[in-house]
Specification:
The protein has 337 residues and is of the alpha/beta class. The protein has helices at residues 2-17, 19-26, 83-106, 109-122, 132-145, 174-181, 200-204, 217-226, 231-234, 249-264, 283-290, 309-322, and strands at 41-44, 77-80, 171-172, 191-196, 207-208, 212-213, 237-242, 277-280, 295-296.
């Protein structure tokens, strides 16, 4: 009994004399809100069986216990996250950030024209003896510095353009398309062809008066081959591409024609059969709702019409087979040069 009374007396005396030591060890409280400088740390319970310093290789140098300023957490270990995680995240973030900056820099109109120039020149054999080298250099310089000249550098664009979704293609508004159809530019245009790139059931359901339906790459190439020599007799033959929204099919066919046209005239660069080509911004849908009188029949058949689900599946499958094996980057090369 005397021993028990003595032990209790000693314990009470210790608590009363040193409250900041043993009593704090016995009292586990919730840590206060960390300061901004302590963001990124987390608390873990102590490892059973001894001090973490005795664990050797089981803990990294960054995992050694630390003490939060202003608080004595003798019974709580404060560990920082492994340094490798922070480093790998920071490195990846810096790498991808620099890559985005580089991509944004390369996608500027000036740099894109320079890349297209390099592609075009790689396909051209300069005949310095005939003086064509200086001519080609002059045309390339004009195309690189003046975005308002047609693709062969011979003259400015005839029809007023707008800023469309596809920055590499010249676009015209539905109102301008209506003005062209009404003959407002007949004094400057020798011939106009509207190329409708929608599927046949869409075309039959309503199209711009006088348009031709070319919805495959082979059709576009055949059209180009059949008009290779027309520019000498018919003057300025202007083309206007479009599809339902001029979002995918129309722009793809536009780029395909320009690429094929450039390839067929490599030996006589910068000559082109169709140097002046446009894209109808908003496509047939936008034009129909504003200028329905210019359409025949005066109707609008959407691509996703419920009565043509089978036709849509058929033409989509055909489109995949038509483009099989073709290099994707070929579609965007040599547009202006």
């Amino acid at each position: 009994m005397e021993r028990e009374r003595t032990s209790k007396t000693e314990i009470s005396s210790i608590c009363s004399s040193e409250p900041s030591t043993l009593c704090d060890m016995l009292r586990l409280t919730t840590p206060s809100k960390p300061e901004e400088s302590d963001i990124g740390i987390f608390l873990t319970p102590p490892v059973r069986g001894g001090n973490t310093a005795e664990k050797g290789n089981e803990w990294a140098a960054t995992d050694t216990p630390t003490v939060i300023s202003g608080h004595d957490r003798s019974n709580i270990e404060v560990c920082r996250k492994p340094l490798g995680r922070f480093l790998s995240f920071d490195v990846k973030r810096s790498l991808f950030s620099s890559k985005r900056l580089a991509d944004a820099h390369e996608d500027t109109p000036g740099s894109r024209r320079l890349r297209e120039t390099a592609v075009a020149l790689s396909n051209v054999t300069l005949d310095t003896s005939s003086g064509r080298g200086d001519e080609i250099k002059s045309v390339v310089n004009t195309l690189s510095t003046d975005p308002e000249v047609v693709a062969d550098g011979s003259r400015p664009y005839t029809i007023p353009t707008v800023h469309g979704k596809h920055k590499d293609l010249k676009a015209i508004s539905p109102d301008t398309m209506d003005a062209v159809l009404r003959g407002c530019y007949d004094d400057e245009i020798g011939r106009l062809t509207v190329i409708d790139c929608r599927y046949p059931y869409e075309f039959k359901g309503g199209h711009i008066r006088g348009a031709v339906n070319l919805f495959t790459r082979d059709m576009v190439r055949d059209f180009l081959l059949s008009h290779m020599n027309d520019d000498a007799t018919s003057g300025r033959h202007v083309l206007v591409f479009h599809c339902e929204f001029s979002s995918e099919r129309g722009p793809k066919m536009y780029r395909h024609l320009r690429s094929e046209d450039r390839g067929l005239h490599t030996d006589v660069y910068p000559r082109l059969a169709f140097p002046e080509v446009y894209l109808l911004e908003g496509g047939y849908k936008a034009f129909f709702h504003k200028h329905m009188v210019q359409c025949e029949p005066q109707q609008y058949m959407p691509m996703l019409h419920k009565d043509h689900v089978t036709d849509l599946r058929h033409f989509r499958a055909k489109s995949k087979s038509w483009t099989a094996g073709e290099r994707a980057n070929r579609l965007r090369t040599s547009l202006r040069f």
